[in-house]
Amino acid sequence: MIMREMLRKYAVMDKPSLRFIKLLTYYSSMKGDSFDINEKLDELPVELRLRAVDRLKIERLKRRGRKSLLFRLLLIVALIGPGILVMIADNDAGGIITYAQTGSIFGIGFFIPLMFLMVPVAYFVQEMTVRLAAVTRRGHAEMIWKRYGSFWGAFSLIDLVIANTLTMITEFIGITFGMSIFGIPSLYAVIIGITFVGIIMLTLRYHRWERVSLIIAFFNMIFIPIVLFARPDWSMVANTFLSWNVPGGLSAIFIYVLIANVGTTIAPWMLFFQQSSEVDKGIIPSDIRSGKRDTFMGACIMGAVAISIIILTGTLVFGAQRVGTPASYDIAFILQTIASKVGMLPVKLFALGMIDAGTIAAIALTASTSWAVGEAFGWPKSINLPFAEGRKFYIPGLVSMLIAALIVLVPNAPLGFLNLTVQVIASIFMPAALLFLLLLVNDKAIMGKYVNKKWENAVTVGIMLMLIVMSTLYGISVVMPKLI
Amino acid sequence: MLDKDEYRFIKNDEDWKRFLKKEKIKDYSSMKVRRAKMKGWAQFAFILLRIYIIIMLAIVILGFLHLI
C-alpha cells in the first residue's frame, strides 16, 4: 500500500528528493520487487552457488512441509543421501559373495539374528560421522591430519587409498562376473564399468551425483524379492531368533565366516566416505537428526539385503556339498545350484544385483579416495566443482579406479592374493580408524555439546572392542590360516 | 535458474545475508582446528595403537613370506 502510494507520487514528481529515492529503494527491497535471488546466487563461486541452491530447496521444503504431508515426505527424500549410500555401498560385490557363502555353508540358523544385530552396530559407528561432519564441516582425513598430526594423517591416507584401490578390484571382479552371466566379455564389462562411474563422477554435481547414486543403490534391494523364488519356510526363519545357537559348535570355519560377516559390515572407508559426503552435502548441526535418520534407514536396508541373501542360499544351497568351506562354495557353484533348483531368472537377477553392488561401491570408493586426498593436501574437495576447476580433486579417485580395472584385466593376476591383502590392510587400519573416530567425537574443543554421551561411549567402546578383536583375528586368519 | 515465486521467503538483501549466515554457505569450513595435545587415556591409547600396528605388520610380513 505504502509502496503503491510512493510510486504514484514519484510518477508526478519533477525532482524527487534524495531522501525520497532512498525510502523508495528501501521499500522496494522490502517488497522484494528489486531483489533477484538468481542474481545473488550468480555472485557466489560455482561450488558455493550449487550448495546454496541445494540448501534453498531444502529450506523451501521445510517451510512447505509445515503445512503439507507431501512436502514433509519430499523433505525426508531430499535429506537422505550419504547414510543410505554408505550402507548400501558396503553391501558390495565382496559382501554379497560373503553373505551367499554364509547361507550356503551354515544355512539360516545363526547368521540371520547376527545380521539383525549388526544393523545397530553399523548405525552407532556411522552416526558419529554425521555429528562430526555437521559440527566440524570437515572430512575425516582432514580432521585426523589437523588434529593428530601429519604422521597419523599420512598413515590413514596411505591405508585408505591402498585399501580403496584394492577393494575396487573386487568390485570390478563382481561387475565382470555379473556381466558374464549375460554373455558380456570381461574387457567390455570393465570398459562399461569405468565409463559409467567416470561419467557419474565427472559430469554430475553433488546433488545430482547423490540422487543418481541413490537410484543405483536402490537396485541393490533386488536381492530382497529374489528370496521369494526360494519359497523359504518363514516360520523357520522366525524361529532362528528364538533358538539362536552355533551350528555344529565353534569350528575354525565358523569363526572365519563369523569374522568375515562382521568385517563386511563395517569397513574403515565407510567412516571417511560418509563424513566427506555429509560435508559436501553441506550438512550443519540442525541437520543432525535427518542425517541420523538417513543412516538408520541405510543400516536397515543393508541388514535386509544381507538377511535376504542368507535366506536365499541357506534355503537353496545349504547342504548341497559335504565339505562346507568358502572355497568349496564359490559364487559360480552357488549360482549353478540356484539355477538347478529354481531356474535361471533368479540367477539373472542375482547377477544384476552383483553388477549393481560393484557399481555403487566403485562410485563410493572413487569419491572416497578423491575426498580423502583433497582433504589431506588442502586441495579443492567437492563434487560441486567442474572438472576444469577441480582437476586435482577428481584425478586421484579416477586413477585408483583405472588401476583397479586394469589389474582385473591382467591375465593370471593374483586376484586372490590381492583380495587377502585388502582384508589384512583393513584389519590393521580398523582399530586406528575407530580410535580416531572416538577421540574426535569426544573432543569437547571441537564438538562442544555434540560430544558422545556416557552411554553412547559405553556402547561405542563395546562395539569398537568387538570389531577390533574380530578384524584382528580376521587379518591373522588370512595370513596365517593355521593359527586360527 | 530458480523460480523467484518459489523462494519468496527470501525477500531482500537482509534475508539473503541471514540465509547465508544460517546455512554457513560462505564460512562453511571456518572452524579453527588446531593440533590436539595428547594426555591421559588418549596418550595411552596411541601407545597401544603403535604397538598394535607394529605387531600386526610383523605378523603380516611373516604370513606373506610363508604364502610366497
CATH class of the largest domain in chain A: Mainly Alpha
Molecular shape of chain A: globular
Give me the secondary-structure category of chain B: mainly alpha
| Overall CATH architecture of the largest domain in chain A | Up-down Bundle
Helix content of chain B: 40-55%
Q: Which secondary-structure class do the elements of chain A indicate?
A: mainly alpha
Distance between the termini of chain B: 60 Å
Question: Please, what is the CATH homologous superfamily of the largest domain in chain A?
Answer: Amino acid/polyamine transporter I
Portion of residues in helices of chain A? over 70%
Beta fraction of chain A:
under 5%
Major β-sheet annotation of chain A: none
- Strand proportion of chain B: under 5%
Specify Rg of chain A, calculated over alpha carbons: 26 Å
Q: How many domain modules of chain A?
A: 2
Q: How many beta-strand elements of chain A?
A: 0
Q: Biggest interface, which chains?
A: A-B, 50 and 40 residues
The number of distinct helices of chain B, counting runs of at least 4 residues, comes to: 2
Largest sheet of chain B: none
Task: Write down the CATH topology of the largest domain in chain A.
Answer: Amino acid/polyamine transporter I
